[in-house]
Amino acid sequence: MYSGSSDGEGHDAPQRKIPPASSMPWVRNLRRFIGTGTGLGSEALMELETKKILLDIFKEKQRKTAEAGTIPSFYKKKPEEGSISHRVQRLAKYRFLRKQSDLLLNADDLDAMWVCLRENCVIDDATGAEKMNYEDFCHIASVCAEQIGPKCRRFFSPSNFMKFEKDESGRIAILPFYLYVMRTVSLTQARIDMSELDEDSDGFLQPHEMEGYIRGLIPNLAQLRDIPASFVQTYCRIAARKFFFFCDPARRGKACIKKVLLSNCLQELMELHQETEEEVTDTEQAENWFSLTSAQRICDMFLALDKDMNGTLSKQELREYADGTLTEIFIERVFDEHVRRSKGGGNTREMDFDSFLDFVLALENKDTPEGLTYLFRCLDLHGRGYLTTVDIHTLFRDVHQKWIEGGNYELCIEDVRDEIWDMVKPVDPLKITSTDLLNCKQGGTVASMLIDVRGFWAHDNRENLLQEEEEPEEE
């Protein structure tokens, strides 16, 4: 028994030992009582049952992981069409996209913002440009928030102000800022529209989904108002093919929405919003792949080549492309690398309309990485990933033959081969790779010299052509 004083001063008081919980009868009884769930309320019972279910799920997941080894799960089966999970997923996606769309500025909001910018800016005495400093920027932000609402506040952040070029007084021009707002709204709306068409919600668009997006844009594009109803489907097919040529380099049959939004193709398509009152020649309209003139030109070209009108092009028919200036070996290589065999079997190959569109896109965009990659596969005769002097000699031999048949002067193939080597300056002096062609900035010219006699003629007469272009400007 403890016999010391109550405060414990001056004595070495022994410590009282507390018996373990397991030896206390009341603790054991309480544990039994709680364990049976008899004394718990409905909420406590529900929580206990939930913990048991979660524990069972956790143990089952651990068991499956142990059976599967150390490889983690990387594939989840998509919900079946019409299932509850699929419906819930689509409803959640629809509500999310609607919410994001409601947060965007509409045309009236953008007009109101432009008025606020112009009414609260200052005029630069030197240039006459309309500018604003950071104080004006903050003031305009509060005015826009009052007139438009809080959804415009995100454009008036300090980080956005710092993105623009400032003058000596720390002011930015209001026009670049307004164009930035318009482009952000336009791209966001485009992403929402594309996401709505993305049926499996994987962030990629399939060809028919991309065509559906373009079809929805046609009523809003000023330069496509007069498109015939019978030509709409063909136009959408032609327009969508350019997106896949540049945004689907692996040819997987689906284009990443992010790449589509950041590509020059979308910007080129949106140029059709502009209404041009002045007369535009067919040549100028044809420079835009998405113009109605360009689409009709390509369609007419395919129909003119398709002599037997079977909807596909044979090698003999494709040889008539560009007035027959392409070489025989290049046509053969195009069919070897980019044309699938017919479904009926056999060795016969026919180029369908989609393959023809890729063919035209590659020839009209030879200086781009995508176009040059398409052509390099044809130039790489042995599929080794590089070209040798023998390959250059073999490829140019057909160009040389057409060159002589056209009544031109005699030339030495070895001299042309050496000139190509000097133009490319490959890292390995014995090989030319696709990377070398891209880095030399003359890959498109080199490809033209090896596949098209007209391309070689243009290179050979480049000084005269340049002089002819400069003379009208001097006049």
Describe this structure as you would to a colleague.
The chain has 475 residues and is an all-alpha fold. The protein has 23 helices and five strands. It has a three-stranded antiparallel β-sheet. Helix 4 (107-119) packs antiparallel against helix 7 and helix 17 packs parallel to helix 21 (443-451). Residues 1-11 have low confidence and may be disordered.
The order of strands across the largest sheet is 1-2-3
Strand % is under 5%
**Low-pLDDT segments, ≥5 res:** 1-11
- Shape category: extended
Q: What is the overall pLDDT average?
A: 84
How far the N terminus sits from the C terminus, by CA atoms, comes to 122 Å
Oligomer: single chain
How would a crystallographer describe the biggest sheet? 3 strands, antiparallel
- In total, the number of strands is 5
Secondary structure category: mainly alpha
Q: Which bin fits the share of residues in helices?
A: 55-70%
Number of helices: 23
Q: Radius of gyration over alpha carbons? A: 35 Å
What is the N-to-C order of secondary-structure elements (H for helix, E for strand)? HHHHEEHHEHEHHEHHHHHHHHHHHHHH
